[in-house]
Amino acid sequence: MSQAEMDQSEIKKGDTRPDTKQRILDAAEKLFAREGFHNTSLRAITGEAEVNLAAVNYHFGSKEALLDKVIARRLLPLNELRRTRLLRVREASRRENRRPRVEETLRAFIEPTMRFRDSEPGADDFMSLIGRALSEPDDTVRKIFITHIKSIFYLLYETLCNALPDISKEVIFWRLQFSIGALSHILRTVGRFELSHFPEGVNPAPDTDAMLTMLVPYLVQGMEAH
Amino acid sequence: MSQAEMDQSEIKKGDTRPDTKQRILDAAEKLFAREGFHNTSLRAITGEAEVNLAAVNYHFGSKEALLDKVIARRLLPLNELRRTRLLRVREASRRENRRPRVEETLRAFIEPTMRFRDSEPGADDFMSLIGRALSEPDDTVRKIFITHIKSIFYLLYETLCNALPDISKEVIFWRLQFSIGALSHILRTVGRFELSHFPEGVNPAPDTDAMLTMLVPYLVQGMEAH
DNA sequence: GTCTATAGATTGATAGAC
DNA sequence: GTCTATCAATCTATAGAC
Predict the structure, then answer these.
(1) Average pLDDT over residues B32-42
(2) Is the pTM of this model over 0.85?
(3) Residue B192: per-residue pLDDT
(4) Mind telling me how many Å the CA of A217 is from chain B's nearest CA?
(5) What is the per-residue DSSP string for B123-145?
(6) Nearest CA to the C1' of C13 belongs to which residue?
(7) pLDDT (tens digit, 9 = 90+) per residue, A172-215?
(8) What is d(CA A140, CA A120) in angstroms, rounded to the nearest whole number?
(9) Which of B225, B121, B65, B211 is nearest to A219 (CA)?
(10) Shortest alpha-carbon distance between residue B167 and chain A (Å)
(11) Which bases of chain D come closer than 7 Å to a protein CB?
(12) How far apart (Å, rounded) are the C-alpha atoms in residues A190 and A29?
């Protein structure tokens, strides 16, 4: 009877169609990333997901609650990856009785972030979305995002303060803001530029490794500037 | 009866009320910056400006054309400032038969940009708006902005290539993107953060000089990293 | 140039049949 | 859980009186 129970809610045996909730989340993620939250209607989402208009409010309650689920679905696991790596950096520095290094600290945050883009289908749209979340003028998107990012940001900030004892906490804070700005700009634009804006000879869409190779030394040098 | 005529349309001698067009531009700038383009209705704009709803379409033709004027009104003079300073850097380097320095090149672009915020009332809203323009997901805002920024961006890029002969043009291009990301993040967030997000002891709204003192060395070191 | 009034389209959300 | 039908609110834009 386990089979019947599964169909209760309800996926047919041979049916490979993901369930409605997933389809809505996928469609919303894509459209919020590409068109913006306020510029995406529920009708556009349910059309893309090929589900009924009323399904959004049935499954999520409101457009805003849907946005929260779209963000949480991927950001919670991503934050776990970043937290694990940051804690490992701190642990290693304590064990070896030295300060954390700036480069390993920044990498612990940035590498999982940028590699996440390649990890699952749809994650690239998600990265555009969170790359833009901080710059949303309207509270709706920004507040939901900040709720989910706050604690990992402080962990990163504290580790950097530990790594850079000769630089004031205020300067470290703002340099970290500069770095977040650079990272989020890249997250939301790579692969989405209009080609016409590129000087000749510049690859408009470097892969993740190439981007890390350019980004990390840039950020490390900036953070360490005297 | 002169009173009646004044209300007719027409600005009287002693009337200090800016004309309708200005009032609409000011209101639109403020609301586009704080609420976003799609999240700002014409009713909100005409309400803030205390003019009639129909005035926007009479004076500007459409909401989109209004946005273009809001951006052009301040960006054209700002671009002139930046262009003049960049050309002066290039001229000085040619005269002294040396390469432009990275710091003076970046300053030529960044100082006018950040000081513009303090230059006139309303300019702070404008800086938030253009700080966010590049990250708009929707074409409307971004395309209008890119139209106005393209040529000055290339001038900056070429001068940097000239200043950094040992770094590949591709790397310079992306490092410039990182720098633009850092700058625009700061432009749109300074003074607009929620206070609760600040670690103790960090000034949530440094003035322009303090910010330049922190930002310029960060960007210079990043651009010059080997 | 300014105003009222409204057209015409679209929105988020919901009620109720199945 | 899914669907149709629709409400009530909102939007941009415009026509036409003054």
Answers:
(1) 95
(2) yes
(3) 75
(4) 7
(5) HHHHHHHHHHHTT-SSHHHHHHH
(6) A57
(7) 999 999 999 999 999 988 877 776 678 988 999 899 999 999 99
(8) 26
(9) B225
(10) 11
(11) 1-6, 10-16
(12) 17
